[in-house]
Amino acid sequence: MDRAAALALGEQQRELRACGGEWACYRPLGEPVGSAALESVSGETRWLETALIDLSAGVASARRAMDRKTRQDVRRTRLSGLRFGEEPAALEEAYALHARQARAWRGHRPLPLELSRRLIESGAGRLLVARDARGVLCATLALDGRHETFLWWSGSHTGARAAEAFPGLLWWAAEWAAARGRARLNLGASRGLETLGRFKRSLGARTVRYPVRWMDAGTAPPLGRFAASLQGRLRRGRARGEPA
Fold this sequence. Notes:
It contains 9 helices and 9 strands. The protein has helices at residues 2-16, 35-38, 59-64, 68-79, 91-102, 113-122, 165-179, 194-202, 222-234, and strands spanning 21-24, 43-54, 83-86, 125-132, 135-144, 148-156, 184-188, 206-215, 242-243.
């Protein structure tokens, strides 16, 4: 199946004379992808990683995988009066928090607000929020599928850290996903930041590595190759994974 998909994608790449793209071979259970299939698409293979909370045995089992301090922090957020919920109407407030944080991330540009709005309207996106009397403290836009919920982007108020609001929100998101029969909560990549990776492990997440085939502009016309080169310079500094 991988080979057939790769051949079809490679053929489309040549027909379109594509300037770039990516083929993410994400396998949450760790199944291998053959190198011959990946190399059917012109480009470079690199390895990315993501952090998964296993919900397949139920939320109680997942809670036991958390470290003790994180369990205590989450318990305190419940006792402090923080409120958690799905609030699509809070999108603009949540996006403003995300955009403010993103300004400090080198090479990163937030995706358009309208894209998130349309995902929510379609039912594929779910906005999960933690708030107190001041308003939204932190929020995350989740992409929700039949087997897995993926936390795509997030934003936090400056007061969220003192209230331990973000760990509380992520654990509530795990409960939310488990209640809907999801087998996994995907916390995303840590962008090489050890402190972020350590935080996700404290929630009981395990790391899954998967290959991504970054398509090149080898079949593109001269203008396309120039555009791809310019885009590469503009995006220098973004996490693209480790070489294969």
